[in-house]
Each structure stands twice: as C-alpha cells, then as structure tokens.
Amino acid sequence: MMREIDIEMGKRIQFLMKRRALASREVARDLEVSPSKFFHIINGRAALKPDLAVALAKYFNITLDELFGRAPMPNEITMRTVLPRGYTQETWQAHLQKIADKHNQRVLDQQKAERAQRR
Fold it and tell me: What string of DSSP letters covers 2-68?
C-alpha cells in the first residue's frame, strides 16, 4: 500500500537525483542498496528506513530536515528571485543553453585543432 508520505519522499529523492543527473541504479550502487529496493522507495512503494535516510542525506549533502521536507532544500528556492530583469524562467534557461552550446562548440573546435597539430 502506497502512503502519501512515501510518495512525497520518493519525489524528493527523484528531485535530488535529477539535479545531479544521477540514475537510480547509480545511487543504489553507491548506497549499497539493491536497485529494485531503491526503485520501490523512489516510486513511493516502500518506506524509507532511518539508516538509508541518513545515508541519502549524507550522499546528497543535505540535512534530514531537508530530505523529509521540514526545511526547503537549497535548490527549491525559485529561480524567479534571481532571474535577470526581463527574463522568464523559460527564456533564461534557453539563454543558458545557448551559452553552454557555444562553450561546447569552442571546446570541440579546440580539441579538433589540437588533434590537427599533432598530425
């Protein structure tokens, strides 16, 4: 039976994993938990045991209060409070993506030039 608290906890863990681009298998392996057990936890089908809660808080470098939702996690502060004037969250994300794309292209061009020099 899925309890609302387990579902919310699973969502919070998924949020943390997404922010760090981590797969559930990777986190399960790092925490020495079976992938199926961890899958059930993050999908709200199993309760989070205290020892795993402590391990998750350490793993994600947050407090137990943040993990359990009694305090906001640092990344839960909305982007609207820090967005430059004239940007929406979507346009700011698009702007950041353009910057990242340009940077990645420069890195690729530099690597290509270095390979050409070695020949």
Answer: --HHHHHHHHHHHHHHHHTT--HHHHHHHTT--HHHHHHHHTTSSPPPHHHHHHHHHHHT--HHHHT
CATH of domain 4-76: 1.10.260.40
> What pTM does this model have?
0.60
20-67 pLDDT tens trace: 899 999 999 999 999 999 999 999 899 899 999 999 999 998 899 888
The pair of three-digit structure tokens given for residue 22, joined into one six-digit string: 């981590």
Return the structure tokens found at 38: 């961890």
- State the Cα–Cα distance between residues 111 and 116, nearest whole angstrom: 9
Measuring CA to CA, which residue among 18, 15, 17 is closest to residue 31?
17
Task: Note whether 67 and 58 are within 8 A (CB).
Answer: no
Contact at 8 Å (CB) between 23 and 17?
yes
